[in-house]
Amino acid sequence: MLMQKFKANSYLFGGNAPYVEEMYESYLSNPGSVPDHWREYFDALQHVPALDGSNARDVPHAPVVSAFAERAKSGPIRTLQAVADGELARKRVAAQQLIAAYRNVGVRWADLDPLKRTERPNIPDLEPSFYGFTDADLETVFNVSNTFFDRENLSLRELLNNLHETYCGSLGAEFMYLSDQDQKRWWQQRLESTRTRPDVDAEAKKHLLERLTAAEGLERYLATKYVGQKRFSLEGGESFIVAMDTLVQRAGALGIQEVVIGMAHRGRLNVLVNTLGKRPQDLFDEFEGKHADDLPSGDVKYHQGFSSDVSTPGGPVHLSLAFNPSHLEIVNPVIEGSTRARLDRRGDALGETVLPVLVHGDASFAGQGVVMETLALAQTRGYTTGGTVHIVINNQIGFTTSDPRDARSTLYCTDVAKMIEAPILHVNGDDPESVAFATSLALDYRKQFHHDVVVDIVCFRKLGHNEQDTPAVTQPLMYKKIVAHPGARKVYADRLVSQGVIAAADADQLVHEFRAEMESGISLEPVLTNYKSKYAVDWSPYLNRRWTDSADTALPMTELKRLAERITTVPENFKLHPLVEKVIADRAKMGRGEMPLDWGMGEHMAFASLVANGFPVRLSGEDSGRGTFSHRHSVLHDQSREKWDVGTYIPLQNVAEGQAPFTVIDSILSEEAVLGFEYGYSTADPRTLVIWEAQFGDFANGAQVLIDQFISAGEVKWGRACGLTLMLPHGYEGQGPEHSSARLERYLQLCAETNMQVCQPTNPSQIFHLLRRQMLRPFRKPLIIMTPKSLLRHPHAKSPLSDLANSRFEVVLPEVEELQADKVKRIVACSGRVYYDLLAARTERKIDDVAIIRLEQIYPFPHKAFAAEVKRYPNARDIVWCQDEPQNQGAWFFVQHHIHENMLEGQKLGYAGRPASASTAVGYYAKHAEQQKELLSAAFGKLKGYVLTR
């Protein structure tokens, strides 16, 4: 049976049979024409018994056997020596297969679980007998020059010992799935040359014990001082602090100057104190309910971020721990975006100076989709950060999962990382030396290959999900073992005592010393208080500023024409598609004032003016280069060349000498990770206009956590300002539920305390001034723009070039016709594309006593400007809010009390729009058209239904 398995796994059999037969034909013609090992194989094959012990041969080798039989009739009989040589050749092949098996699946036998709950699995591939070896072969010497052990010739016994030490100890590695041969050889060399057990001197061992003592000591101190309070203890996973210490120090030695860290709550307080150097007294104050007065809301202590500068062998390193809500892995893309901004600021395209570190839980790493989405960004041009070090605090348990079969569908929680061929190091949390070694290996690999790498620290969770939980209710057997476990610090201390590195009293003394330091409340880590990097960003000019709607966004006409010429100039011999050629030609006319501007030109002029003035622009989305509705064409494609690097031209990158960068990215098909990335980027760089554009506005649904937890609330919870801009195509053109609404009402519901802006501009001049205003005002607030679809080419949604020179962003656009103000009986207020439908209906019906005003900024609500428009029409008895969206959606429920506040005495407020609906829009175009007709009639007809009176 074992020999049959060998046959099934050997490269000499199965699907490779045609290749073997072809090789054999060459051998028959000329034995010297095939490689030596094949010649030895064919020489010996006729003397090797059948693999199942019978006289039969497997079908694929039948032609070979027949040929041997024919040759045997006329050729000399082989000697016994040939039989022996053939058997030795087979064993040589088997030895190589044994090496490959340990490299591939040796991790399955690794000693990873501190609780030792499972038996070693049955893996025949790792058994010598699987390859036909017996005890009699243990002293047979084989050439193993393809390994990195200390000798090229090893006995089978020595080979097995070396393989087991390397791949089946307290560190197990997965890397053989890597496509890059250099990377695979790198891992083989680093693991096999050390047997994964590097030399650790006595001082280093004492340092590791001190780190474990600090990790355990903090948790025990908090447990006794703040009984029952939530802290998401690290107990059971204390070696994670060893990993973080190693990471910071090793990173500094490798030239890293900044480490950007993202993690959820488990162990977060420990990292704050024992890695970043937060003062214990500050942590104690948070436990005791003290809070910052400058944050309207604040957040719980295990969501807080922190930054510091620490000393390393390579110089100062800046550490940043990002703020993170309870949504666990959602911080992943935020960290990547923040890292990319820091790299761009340094001009570091490879990721040599800034390191992203993501700390995961085992269940969330396997279970949350944002992990996969973020991994998918890793090697893409617009989002790469030079490789991320992932550390998994593997508690071997989910949130409340009591059965491993319900935790995931993969063998390891880290298997998702294999999608980008990230090597994975699994390490026993009870062995801090292996944890430190694995972390160092991960950093060295990242330095060499600029690729993601995973360190999976297999440990346990001593307490429940939080300190008020009783996990033994659902995991009784597991927690019996946990209760009996002395802890990683005690296990390692006992080991060092047995090795003579320390005395038992020394280990106890470390515990007492740490307790005394905690009592003092001072920082336990050496933090550099007076160091400031030249790359640090000064946010002070943008903080604590009063809200203002206005900014001087106009430009001189000469500058506008110069910019227009630059963005419509195409290199010689660059062949444009005929449709794009017309777009560029029309834009050139717009830039000369010969045609009114369309939306795409308004955008381009804003971008060009900003980069020319030193403000970088970063625009990303699933179709941002061309634009979902083919309106932008910021990336021009040479129709005679297809290669991106030589076949494209971006005019906005060629606006002026020494201009700021313009970056446009067609992102992967992801909302959550890409929006998180751009949010992270914007929080690290206030001088860049960062824009995320949804393909359709409602696709932002897939990133709702980012909108709810970060974009709308990050400033009031954490004091994190950002100027991120969201462009969300929105408009009812009869395209059905998924392609109509950007869910305007959701953003408005999140608005308070001037936390962000929600705008719906309706012409090119407005988008020009709005984008410029976002950067020129002295503060940074998220900007949500409901961008149009049909208005991109609407004949009336145009602006003269002069509006860019003589105007600004108007929060309210007034009536455009010269109506007699005292004859106006009704004011119709609206926002967005419905304005043009109202305008057309009014003209068609020859109505001259209804004024139409546009609310271009919905939040912060422009009370002063809106009230001024209402006062222009003193005889208007009705105000009607008209919208495309159903009544329970859109802006109606948000704006009605604001409008009511600005109404004149005796005025009435009514609603014109679609009826309330469970869906955002109807899917039948005929019904859409019918509803559109009804809402227009309601806008100009008698007030019905719910009416408010002033």
Structural account:
The protein has 950 residues and is an alpha/beta fold. The protein has 4 domains: 2-166, no CATH class; 202-520, 3-Layer(aba) Sandwich (Rossmann fold), CATH 3.40.50; 557-731 and 740-806, Rossmann fold (3-Layer(aba) Sandwich), CATH 3.40.50; 813-949, 3-Layer(aba) Sandwich (Rossmann fold), CATH 3.40.50.11610. It contains 32 helices and 25 strands. β20 (826-830), α29 (834-844) and β21 form a beta-alpha-beta unit. α19 (557-567) packs antiparallel against α20, α19 (557-567) crosses α21 and α21 runs parallel beside α27 (764-776). The longest helix is centred in the N-terminal third of the chain and has 26 residues, at 80-105. The chain is globular and about 110 Å long. Mean pLDDT is 90; it is low at 1-18, 46-61 and 67-79. GO terms for molecular function: oxoglutarate dehydrogenase (succinyl-transferring) activity; thiamine pyrophosphate binding.
Secondary structure layout:
Blueprint: H1 2-9, H2 17-29, H3 36-45, H4 62-74, H5 80-105, E1 141-143, E2 153-155, H6 156-167, E3 171-174, H7 181-192, H8 202-225, H9 239-253, E4 258-263, H10 268-274, H11 280-287, E5 306-312, E6 315-321, H12 331-346, E7 354-361, H13 362-367, H14 369-377, E8 389-394, E9 424-428, H15 432-449, E10 453-458, H16 476-484, H17 488-498, H18 504-520, H19 557-567, H20 578-591, H21 599-612, E11 617-621, E12 636-637, H22 644-647, E13 648-649, E14 662-666, H23 672-684, E15 689-693, H24 704-711, H25 714-718, E16 725-729, H26 744-749, E17 757-759, H27 764-776, E18 783-787, H28 802-806, E19 812-813, E20 826-830, H29 834-844, E21 850-855, E22 857-859, H30 863-871, E23 878-886, H31 892-901, E24 908-914, H32 925-940, E25 948-949
Parallel strand pairs: 4-6, 4-7, 7-8, 8-10, 9-10, 11-14, 11-15, 15-16, 16-18, 17-18, 20-21, 20-23, 23-24
Antiparallel strand pairs: 1-2, 3-9, 5-6, 12-13, 17-22, 19-21, 24-25
Helix pairs in contact: 3-5, 5-6, 8-9, 8-17, 8-18, 9-15, 12-23, 19-20, 19-21, 21-27, 23-24
